[in-house]
Each structure stands twice: as structure tokens, then as C-alpha cells.
Amino acid sequence: MIWNAWTLDRSVILFTAFAYLFIAAQVTLSHYRQNFHRKVMLIPVITAPLYFLVGLLAVLLNRSWLLCLFHIGMWLGILTGLSGLYLHIRGVGKRVGSYAFRNFLIGPPVLMPLLYSALGILGLIAVYGR
């Protein structure tokens, strides 16, 4: 493993993988705080560590099938984030006062699912940039 021979796309995949690991910790804590009252809350909790694992293995082992799996995972990550955005916005609207500004402050974090999707886009940039 020679670090100075790594290409930019390989480094970005590694960064994306670790970013999904960190976001997995945050999403797990946030959804645990809500007692996973909806089963759909388990999806990012389960998939984010998988994206980390696949990305890490794709970078370290440099196998094309792992890169293909990472590619599929990044598309799923984008879709997961966008569906989470919809659910979070809907969750804000269910609070007393509906879409009042204070509900965006204390309700489900609307920007977190966008971050989840943005990481998927970053991973796709690395995959398509090869």
C-alpha cells in the first residue's frame, strides 16, 4: 500500500467511506433518541456502516466488483437521503404549530438527510471520475 501512488478518486472514496461511518454514528444516536418509533429509521442506521465497509474494502483491495457495489450503494445512499428529507420535513409539519421556524429548530433535522445524499453524490463523483 503506497500512499503517494493513490489517485484522487481512490482517496475521495476512502474519505466518503469514513464520512459514512461518522454519519452512521450521528444517525444512530438521533434515531435512538426517538426510540426508532418508525422502522424506516433503521435504514440509514444499517446502510451507512455497510457503505463504509464496502468503500474501505474497495479502496484497500482495489477489486472492480467492490467498486461496482460501492457505486450501487452511493445511488441507494442518495435515494435514502432524499426519502429521509421528505420524512423529516413531514415530521416537522406534524409538530404543534406545523412549519413554524421553531419546529425546524427542535424537530427532525432537515439538513441531515441532505448530508447523507451529498455523501452519495461525492462517492459517485469519485466513481465516475475514474
Kindly describe this structure.
- The chain is mostly helical and 130 residues long.
- Helices cover 77% and strands 0% of the residues.
- Helix 1 packs antiparallel against helix 2 and helix 2 runs antiparallel to helix 3.
- The longest helix is centred in the middle third of the chain and has 30 residues.
- It is elongated, with a radius of gyration of 16 Å.
Summarize the entry for a quick read:
This protein is 77% helix and 0% strand. The protein has 130 residues and is mainly alpha-helical.
Can you count the helices?
5
* Assembly state: single chain
Give me the count of strands: 0
Tell me the Rg in angstroms. Answer: 16 Å
Class derived from helix and strand content: mainly alpha
Order of helices and strands: HHHHH
Mean pLDDT: 94
**End-to-end gap:** 19 Å
In terms of DSSP E residues, the strand content is under 5%
Percent helix range: over 70%
Key structural traits:
single chain, 5 helices, mainly alpha, 130 residues, elongated
What topology emerges from the helices and strands here?
Elements: H1 8-33, H2 42-61, H3 64-93, H4 101-106, H5 111-128
Helix pairs in contact: 1-2, 1-5, 2-3, 3-5
